[in-house]
Amino acid sequence: MTADNASLSPDSKLNPHFEGRMTKRVLKNLPEGLLIQSNCGEGPFGLFEERLGPKDRREEVWERLRHRRLAGRLFRGFADEASYDIICSLNELGF
For the whole model, what pTM was predicted? Predict the structure, then answer.
């Protein structure tokens, strides 16, 4: 656990790589290529989903999060499409 109450775990097919509150500090430290998804929304899909690019472009991502009022909300991050698809499927089934 980090100071921001977020966890980074080894990638597995049933666990997100990242799960916790999205702060500016957390966003800037997440690895490039991570697919982030907000925990807010209806059904399996969040209000915000994006694959993270280079760290020097994170300020733009942060501004989009703030604009949608999602800064500080719960997010998950997936290292690959397969783990993202599995979690979305489980959510659709009510898990």
Answer: 0.70
